[in-house]
Specification:
Strand order of the largest sheet of chain A: 2-1-3-6-7
Largest sheet of chain A: 5 strands, parallel
Largest interface: A-B, 28 and 28 residues
Order of helices and strands of chain A: HEHHEHEEEHEHEHHHH
Helix content of chain A: 55-70%
Number of helices of chain A: 10
Shape of chain A: elongated
Structural class of chain A: alpha/beta
Radius of gyration of chain A: 28 Å
Oligomer: homodimer
Distance between the termini of chain A: 60 Å
Strand content of chain A: 5-15%
Number of strands of chain A: 7
Chain lengths: ~250, ~250
C-alpha cells in the first residue's frame, strides 16, 4: 500500500466501497426473502405432521364404547387440543385379532398409511394378547411361546420403520382371562425391555377397576364402555414416556 | 261309545284323563324351557352384530377434526345410542388416497375385519374422488375414465360381498377442487344408479356451507373441523336410505 500512487489508492478505495455497497444490497434482499420464506413455511407447516397407527384387537378398536372414540380417539383428541399437535389417528384395531393375525397384516396396513410423504412423522402403537390367551375348541388360540415370537418379530421390524411403543393386554374383569393376561403382560414387558421398546402395562392400570367391571357386565361381559376406555386413555396420557414418544419419536 | 260297557267306559275315561295330565305336564315344561331359552337368547344376542367398514380418503379419516370422530364416528355413535344398534365402526379412510389406491387395498382390509364370524352383519360405505381429480406434477392424478372404471370395479365386487353404499366427494370451499368434484360426483351418481348402489351426493349437502369454509380456512385450507364433519354426518343420518341400509342391509 505504501508504494501505491495516490490516484491508484483512490481508485482502489472506490472499488472496495462499491463492492461493500453491492454486498449490503444483496444482504438486505436476502434477509427480506428469508423472512418471507420463514413466514410462508410457518403458515403452511405450522406444526409437525404426526400420524399414529394403533394396531391391536377389540380393545384398540374400542368395542363397546358408545362414544366411538376408544382410547386412541381420546388420546389423539387430547394431543390435538391440549398439546396443539397436528395428529392424524389411524385406528387399526380388529376384534378377535391375535398376535398372529396382526403379524400377517400390520406392515401392509401401515405402509398404505405412512409411506407416501417423507415429511410426515409416523408412530406405531401395538396392543395385543387377550385373544392369544383365549380358548377356542378347547385349545389356547396362540401359545405363549408363539405370542412372544410374534411380538418380537413385529416389534423389531416395526422400530426399524417408525418409533414404536407397546401397550400390554388390559385387565378385563373376567377371572379366567385375567389369570392368563397378567402373566402374559409381564412376559411381554420383559421382551420389550430386552429389545428396547417402550412398554406400558395396561393390566396394572385397569386391575380391579369397578367402572370397567360394571360397564363390562352391562355390555358383552368383557368390553367396557366410555369409562373403561377413558381409564386406558388416561393411563397412556399420564405415562411418562408418552409425550416424548409422540412429539419427538423417542 | 253307546255300545261300550260301563267298565270299558271308565277305563277309557281314565286313559284319556292320564293322557291329558301328561300333555299338561309336557306343556308346562316346554313353556318354562322356551321362556328360559328366550331369556338366554335375548341376553347373548340382544341386538344384531353390525360392523361397518368406511373406505375412503382424508374426509373419511376425519383429517382436521379435533374431536377425532370424523363423520363415521358421529354416525356410529348415534346408531348405538339413539337407535340401540350394536355397531362396530372400522374407519378405513387414508389421507391422499385415490380410487386406484382404494381399489388395491379395500378387499384385503375388509376381509381382515368382516370374514371371521358368519353371524356378523357387514356393511361397506365407500367415499372417494377428491384426490382423483387433484393435480400432481401438472397432471390429474386419476383420469375421470379411470375413476369411473375403478368405482365400478370396487362397487360391483363389494355388493357381492356385503350391502354397499357410496357417498360422493364433498364440496370443499376450494374453488378449483370444487369445479372438478361437482361434475365427478354427478358421474359417480349416474354409475351408482346403473349398478344399483345407493348413492348420496355429499357435494350437494356441503355446497357453499359457511362453517365448512371458515373451518377449512382456519385449518389446512381444505379439511373442516367438527362443524364440517358434523354436517356430513347429519346429511348421511338424514338420508332416507341410511337406516334401512344399516339395520337391514337394504
Amino acid at each position: 500500500m505504501l508504494s501505491m500512487s495516490r490516484s491508484t489508492l483512490i481508485t482502489e478505495t472506490m472499488t472496495i466501497r462499491n463492492m461493500l455497497l453491492k454486498q449490503t444490497l444483496q444482504l438486505t434482499t436476502l434477509s427480506s426473502r428469508t423472512t418471507l420464506l420463514q413466514r410462508q413455511f410457518s403458515t403452511s407447516h405450522p406444526r409437525p405432521d404426526i400420524r399414529i397407527c394403533f394396531l391391536g384387537d377389540s380393545f384398540t378398536a374400542g368395542a363397546g364404547d358408545d362414544t366411538l372414540l376408544g382410547f386412541p380417539g381420546r388420546l389423539c383428541s387430547a394431543l390435538r387440543t391440549d398439546h396443539a399437535l397436528d395428529i392424524t389417528c389411524y385406528n387399526l384395531g380388529i376384534r378377535r385379532d391375535t398376535s398372529t393375525d396382526i403379524l400377517h397384516r400390520w406392515e401392509r396396513e401401515v405402509n398404505a398409511r405412512l409411506k407416501r410423504n417423507e415429511h410426515l412423522n409416523g408412530r406405531l402403537v401395538f396392543s395385543f394378547g387377550t385373544n392369544d390367551s383365549g380358548f377356542e375348541n378347547g385349545q389356547r388360540r396362540v401359545s405363549t411361546t408363539t405370542t412372544l415370537a410374534n411380538a418380537r418379530s413385529i416389534l423389531v421390524r416395526a422400530k426399524e420403520m417408525w418409533p414404536t411403543a407397546m401397550l400390554g393386554p388390559p385387565w378385563t374383569s373376567v377371572e379366567d382371562i385375567d389369570e392368563r393376561n397378567g402373566p402374559l403382560s409381564r412376559k411381554l414387558e420383559t421382551l420389550c425391555e430386552e429389545i428396547d421398546v417402550p412398554f406400558l402395562s395396561l393390566y396394572q392400570k385397569s386391575e380391579g377397576n369397578g367402572v370397567w367391571a360394571k360397564e363390562a357386565k352391562a355390555g358383552d361381559g368383557i368390553h367396557p364402555n366410555a369409562g373403561g376406555y377413558g381409564l386406558i386413555s388416561k393411563a397412556v396420557a399420564d405415562w411418562d414416556a408418552w409425550e416424548d414418544f409422540v412429539r419427538n419419536g423417542k
